Amino acid sequence: xxxxxxxxxxxxxxxxxxxxxxxxxxxxxxxxxxxxxxxxxxxxxxxxxxxxxxxxxxxxxxxxxxxxxxxxxxxxxxxxxxxxxxxxxxxxxxxxxxxxxxxxxxxxxxxxxxxxxxxxxxxxxxxxxxxxxxxxxxxxxxxxxxxxxxxxxxxxxxxxxxxxxxxxxxxxxxxxxxxxxxxxxxxxxxxxxxxxxxxxxxxxxxxxxxxxxxxxxxxxxxxxxxxxxxxxxxxxxxxxxxxx
Length: 244
Description:
alpha/beta; two-stranded antiparallel ribbon; 3-isopropylmalate dehydratase; Proteasome_assmbl_chaperone_2; PSMG2_sf
């Protein structure tokens, strides 16, 4: 049965969630992992929704298995992070998004969804924002501007945004320019500093992302290769110039 199983008794009051599904540039994955590690966030719930591969995840020097997609929480910062070690199947993205969105709505959670906009350039990464419900207010307060041209967000993250719009859930979608060929720690830094931090009302150190950029790239490339071998596309944002 598709469900989210809460395993920790933590007090959260209308928290903010940061989504970290693997996508182009592995921006969401990098952001989620950084937050969980930087804050020492506690394992909060297992995400057992359709589209999640049935595999067991283990950590070095630990014997306990955990689900590949899970929630970590920090009550002090009123923050929840959706962390994923595997791609969610886009062919089952609709069911996955409905499962997650139902839980978010029931628990009064405001999600921040993350997506990369492929851009092969050494120019500074630009950050844009889209929203559902009253999420535009959060973007305005954070100074995040909308994209200059129309486009779409595909894959599981796109399905989550679609469900948020369909159900009237307040949400924010952060779209950052990212190198589609490699994991992009710089794009993750931009998202954290200029998007996640002001919207969630937190402070997070990002110097580690810059200093360990090459190490992070190498570690993430293995996941990127596995994603490239999959038949389905991962989450990404893309312009719709051809339709305008």
